[in-house]
Design brief:
Chain lengths: 111, 114
């Protein structure tokens, strides 16, 4: 089955700096790559996703890049704000199989 | 609110008791998923349904766990003879049936077994 590895497990950045979280996956047939944000005591919330027919997608301060050859995809958050502090999860694969999640990255944005 | 709804949000039970969680998916979402999440970990897949059919079950779903979706709408997850290791957040999610669609999570049901 799919294996998704995510790193770093924790990340601290100064407010206004950028944050990058990377995930690698094993199933070359994967074609859908979402990122979720989870705040304390809440369920994961989708923040951005990308499909394998594109290499990058942006939504305001958030972007996801995909390298299918290397089988990794990354979340980029620019101009970080304190409200970006949360745990972020990547997931794969897609199609008819349920998503497999990484172990998460705890992002702390220091004001 | 038209999101995924779960209840109860919190449940404390004594070891050996049975508990049941309910999930109401987003309207017209054919697929419904159950995941389990423990502190410091990502969600772990348990099982999923397409309409009323249970299509896949994880090895994590021991025989003390049973999930149903009798009419293809809401679902229940029952844990029999609870153990302390069952303490976790149980997450429900739903998605349209088409391939590669986004899944949307509820707020989860916290279970504490004492």
């Amino acid at each position: 089955g799919e294996n998704v590895e995510q790193h770093p497990s924790t990340l601290s950045v100064q407010e206004g700096d950028s944050a990058v979280i990377k995930c690698t996956y094993s199933d070359s047939a994967s074609n859908y790559f979402p990122w979720y944000k989870q705040e304390l005591g809440k369920g994961p919330q989708l923040i951005i996703d990308i499909r394998s027919n594109v290499g990058e997608k942006k939504d305001q301060r958030i972007a996801v890049t995909l390298n299918k050859t290397a089988k990794h995809f990354s979340l980029h958050i620019t101009e970080t704000q304190p409200e970006d502090s949360a745990v972020y999860f990547c997931a794969g694969p897609s199609g008819n199989t349920p998503l497999v999640f990484g172990k998460g990255t705890r992002l702390s944005v220091i004001a | 609110d038209t999101g995924v709804s779960q209840n109860p949000r919190h449940k404390i039970t004594k070891r050996g008791q049975n508990v049941t969680f309910r999930c109401d998916p987003i309207s017209e979402h054919n697929r419904l998923y159950w995941y389990r999440q423990t502190l410091g970990q990502g969600p772990e897949f348990l099982t999923y349904f397409q309409n009323e059919a249970q299509l896949e079950k994880s090895r994590l779903l021991s025989d003390r766990f049973s999930a149903e979706r009798p009419k293809g709408s809401f679902s229940t997850l029952e844990i029999q003879r609870t153990e302390q290791g069952d303490s976790a957040m149980y997450l429900c999610a739903s998605s349209p049936a088409a391939v590669g669609n986004t899944i949307y999570f509820g707020e989860g049901s916290w279970l504490t077994v004492v």
